[in-house]
């Protein structure tokens, strides 16, 4: 796995950016910026440290799929770490086998650093080679959407 990193400066408080990113005030804000990855993106579960969370969407045939993850850490307005450990196939959680082994245990970390009302969001993620181009294209679009939503 490779570690990728993206940054964006957002003219809003870390609290505002964190709440917008995670959909704390309204899940719609999470769904709006993650729509860059999948127009039906959402989550089911909690952002509390130790909690299980599903990152889900539906494919072109309407079948539900996504990631089975755990919130490894959550320091409000500062840091969130997500550990992915399975995939969701319809309603079934798959936590072992060749599809999962390629990236199981991979982390996705979000850091929020506020300075004079400007928040720098840093995303660090472990990814497999076959997703590098996709993320290099999609993450910047998603972060720009997050910026737009947070600055409203």
> How far from one another are the termini?
36 Å
Low-confidence regions: none
- Identify the CATH homologous superfamily: START domain
* CATH class placement: Alpha Beta
The fold-level CATH name is: Alpha-D-Glucose-1,6-Bisphosphate, Chain A, domain 4
Order of helices and strands, N to C? EHHEEEEEHEEH
Structural class determined from secondary elements: alpha+beta
Number of helices: 4
How many beta-strand segments? Answer: 8
Level-2 CATH architecture = 2-Layer Sandwich
Mean pLDDT across all amino acids? 94
Radius of gyration: 15 Å
The 3D shape can be described as: globular
Q: How would a crystallographer describe the biggest sheet? A: 8 strands, antiparallel
Strand composition percent: 35-45%
Overall domain count: 1
Helix content: 25-40%
InterPro entries: START-like_dom_sf (IPR023393)
Organism: Flagellimonas olearia
Protein name: Tungsten formylmethanofuran dehydrogenase
Please explain how this structure is put together:
The protein has 152 residues and is α+β, with helices and mostly antiparallel strands. The chain contains four helices and eight strands, in the order βααβββββαββα. The mean pLDDT is 94. The protein has a single domain, classed as START domain (Alpha-D-Glucose-1,6-Bisphosphate, Chain A, domain 4), CATH 3.30.530.20. The N and C termini lie far apart (36 Å). Helix 1 packs across helix 4 and helix 2 packs across helix 4. Strands 1, 2, 3, 4, 5, 6, 7 and 8 form an eight-stranded antiparallel sheet that branches.
